[in-house]
Amino acid sequence: LKLQFLYLIAPPTSATMSHRKFEQPRHGNLGFLPRKRCRHVRGRIRAFPKDDEAQKPHLTAFMAYKAGMTLIVRDLERPGSKMHKKEICEPVTIVDCPEICVVGLVGYKPTVRGLRAVSTVWAHQLTEPLLRRYYRTWYAAKKKAFTKHTANYDANAAAREANLARIEKNATVLRVIAHTQPNKLKLGSKKAHVCEIQINGGSMADKLAFAKTLFEQKVSVDQVFQQNERCDVIAVSKGHGMEGVTHRWGVSRLPRKSHRGLRKVACIGAWHPSRVSYSVARAGQNGFHHRTEANKKIFKIGAEASKTDGKGNATTELDLTPKDITPMGGFCRYGIVNNQYLMLKGSIPGPSKRVITLRRPLGAQSSRLAREEVHLKFIDTSSKQGHGTFQTQTERAKFMGL
Fold first, then answer.
1. pLDDT of 152-208, one tens digit each?
2. What is the pTM of this model?
3. Rg (CA), the chain
4. How far apart are the C-alpha atoms of 346 and 90, rounded to whole Å?
5. H helix intervals, 14-64
6. Is the dihedral of CA 293, 294, 300, 301 positive or negative?
7. Strand, coil or helix: 32
8. Phi-psi region of 309 (alpha: psi -120 to 50; beta: other; left: phi over 0)
9. Cα(83)–Cα(188) distance, rounded to whole angstroms?
């Protein structure tokens, strides 16, 4: 009786255990199939935030370039957390943000098959980095792109105004055509990256007036995003080429004495159906995939290094040492950040120098995490190549006695 009583109180653990197929159903996510190389190197915006006419007209995206990563120290402001009011160290990504140029606009109207372009209007002066995008080899090209457009710009004023009137009457979505300025960086490429950026807020007449004021103008990142906001990062991840199943899908290795190798899948399927299912892990392309990471916190929007009057753009209230965000020796495989920069929490897809598309978040940012205020205490600018922990050249020279 005593044994039966104990059995009723505490049944054997095997009765409450689950099965492996529920605990670890498979290796790898099938939601990202097919795992093949992306056709383009620039992250494409497949959805823009919902339009709200009550707001003022504003841009919803920006293009920048990944520079590298570093560390920051801050006090966590999160009531209810065990780390509230305590110092934490977090990794951050530095995104180099030279100004983008607006060179045109496109109006779209909805149809049963999606959005359809109503008309396109271009600005008068188009820069060389944009024109280079239309040619594979610029030096051997005839460079005829937009030459008639520029020469006949004043003569075509009536047609241009007619197109703007059609857009105002028929279009429901307005997007500007913008491109980056690769000549402000050391990318090894002179071709600009071009994308369409949607304008949200206000009526269509307000949107058109706002877009026309941006023609041939430079747009900085602080005109699109603000500190303590969140953004979505769209980019193509770092490529790793042909990879086996163990690294590509994370499957377990076979026992050491397995015949003909152990970094394999032991059984790729039953005799029938006599084909390999799409859900079976196989070797193939790993990396260089199009990925979107949502809700990345913006810790800081730094000023240009040349506009800080020698105070540096990486100083904080507690660290007044004049220093720039570029670490000692420069960012690995990138170099020096001279333009405005964005400091994002955590990592983002892609290697250094990869073009990054930043988009305003799709969802409402009303949680406590989204509204958290960030106050940086320290930004690490030591060498990322492992050459000491000196924050500046002055500190290194003082320590070395130079």
1. 999 999 999 999 999 999 999 999 999 999 999 999 999 999 999 999 999 999 999
2. 0.92
3. 27
4. 7
5. 20-23
6. positive
7. helix
8. left
9. 44
**H-type alpha helices, 259-392:** none
**How would you class 361 by CB atoms within 10 Å of its CB: exposed for 0-12, middle for 13-18, buried for 19 or more?**
middle
Is the sign of the CA dihedral 73, 74, 75, 78 positive or negative? Answer: negative
332 token code pair: 């690995």
Q: In sequence order, what are the residues at sequence separation of 6 or more whose Cβ sits closer than 8 angstroms to the Cβ of residue 99?
A: 181, 184, 218, 219, 220, 339, 340
Q: Phi, psi (5° rounding) for residue 134?
A: -85, -5
- Stated as kind and residue range, the H or E segment containing 163 is helix 157-170
Residue-wise pLDDT for 294-332, tens only, equals 999 999 999 999 999 889 999 999 999 999 999 999 999
Q: Are 347 and 93 in contact (CB under 8 A)?
A: yes
Cα-Cα-Cα-Cα torsion 244, 250, 252, 254, nearest 10 degrees, comes to 0
